[in-house]
Design brief:
single chain; alpha+beta; Penicillin binding protein transpeptidase fold; five-stranded antiparallel sheet; 22 helices; 40% helix; elongated; disordered N terminus
Length: 732
Amino acid sequence: MGPQKNNKKSTGRRVLGGVGKGVGGVFSVIGRVFAIAFLILVITGCICAMVVSVYVIKFMQTDVNIDLHSLDLNNTTILYADDAETGELYELYRLHGVENRIWVELSDIPQMVQDVVIAGEDKRFEEHQGVDWIRTVYAFLNEMFGLSEDRQGGSTLTQQLIKNVTDDSASTFERKIREIFRALNLEKQYTKDDILEAYLNTVNFGYGAYGVQAAANLYFGKDVSELTVPEAASIIASTKNPAWLNPITDPEANKERRDWIIGEYCDLVGLSDEERDAYIATPVETQRTQMQTESSEIQDYFIDTVIEEVIADLQETYGYERSYASSLIFSGGYRIYTTVNSEIQDTLEYYFENVSNLPPIHNEEYPQGACVVTDPYGRILGIVGGTGPKTNARSLNRATMSRRQPGSSIKPLTVYSNGILNNVITWSTMIDDHPFEENEDGTGWPVNFNGQYLGNITVAEAIQRSTNTVAVRLADRLNPLNLVNFLNDNFDFGLVTSGYNNDVALAPVALGAMTVGVYPIDMVGAYQMFGNGGAYTEPYSYTRVLDNEGNVILEKNITPTRILDPETAAVMNKLLQSVTDPTTYGTASSVRWGEQVVGGKTGTTSNDYDHWFIGYSPYYVCGLWIGYDESATINYSGYSYPPLVLWRNIMRDIHEDLPVKGFEDEGTAVAMSYCTETGGLATANCPSSQIGYYKPSFIPSTCTKHLSGSEMTEEDDEDEDGEEYEEIVVIP
């Protein structure tokens, strides 16, 4: 029996031991699971921390400096101009805020109103440093888990102010991080009073009322100093949703939030429950008065141009968002020194505002138009961006906002200037005037506008006649990519260089058939180099901008950039003068008046959709475009090409009191006689010759066809040493 007993005990111990080991193993596995889970959490936390750190570093480095002092809307922005006759500075225009804003100093806002806004929007305003971390975390958790119906969000007054003045309100994590760092930075630069004053004067209270003074006027017909506690709470209640929580749109919803704000206010300043209930029981009587916004005046196109240019430069220089830059112009008390010549601006408006002053056409509705006048170095003196009366402020300005195909007016900027610049052509180089491509049906491309082909013609005749075939042959030789880069790199034309439809082709660079077209102001800017010796300055409408404390915040760099060497510019100038010379019968031979010399080039696109003339005198560069916003044919009679008539009228008027003047580059190009048959320098034996203008560094060889007084035969085409005479180049 003994052995059996011992066996049983032994078996029991083995069972108990196995159970113990099993329990221990379970706990060991659980421990490992917890350890792994803990490590995963740690690693995940580290990754999240690194991601957040990257965002933090990014937004610390790209923060925007916000100038609260420039938000004082009593400081009207003033534009100045120089008097054309005396040169003295005068006030041109005043820019006012387009919203209903009436700035009031914090000292004129009752303490009660200040306390009401703090109670309703940011109770720990006086304690935090721009961000209320308790509310921020709570708001995040409440958003995730719905902890309560707390009516306060996570943003402080400082954060709300930043959102108001920058219009940076996207519902993204990046925006919230950006706002936090901006708030922390803002509180380092300004006092609580500065921030509270700016907030109370910029916040939207609905119905176009921005600022507590405008809201008090609008809703209660009172000055802010006369508001009661319920009225102040009613106004502040609308900030949560200005369109719907204001006391006019939804008085019940406004009262619900108003009552809550009153309770928070009484708690903040230590008032009794009885006083709180008395305020809540007091009704508010709205008295919607006429909003005190200034009427939106219709500025002329030049003022529009200045505004848009300053906004763009503020964005580029300081990284401002467009809405913030715009608010600074209309309310920052800036002093903007413009370039306008009011007499020239008035002349342009005279012609374009009244259709009866424009050249006649046979369409039922007159086309739109645009015109820009600058001095020879890019200073905008006048600009219009449409025909007929201007009916809206900052409306579409076709001179700066509409891209159109320039047609043949692009030729001087591409094939001719580059051909002369690179010594590929001269004034008298012969080029074949026949279609560049022949089709099987006998047709060819391109087609000249008159349907005629003259065989070998000189460069001068080609540009005078605006011959398409010659321009295409030159573009092929010069390489379209080089010509596109020339326009983009030097004048920022923004031509398309990639994709299926791009401008790196013969038609765009030789005939102006661009994919998206060009802006009229860019064409005028580029043409300045032909009359000033080869320099370029991007057209500009102001010289400098000062803030309300007299500090220069923007200043134009008007140092010209050399594009063409003086010799090339001089030859191009002479070529473009020949286009307007009545004796050449060029396409613009009717634009001259009196004795004043001018140069320029016409441009017309397929089906007469777009009509251009870009021209210049020693005083001004003037370019204009006529066409419909939605392309349609312009019908006109005979040789009364509308742009030429209009250009001559405008330029004649603005030159009225100016003495006749020549170009400063006279003499830079060498005048020489050339043979009209070969293009070589003429000999005494050439039957016909004309005067051409050449770069002193690149003069064609002498005509070899008429050396001996009679045309040479093939046998004679060798000198006594058996060497051939140099043949005049003809571009095939």
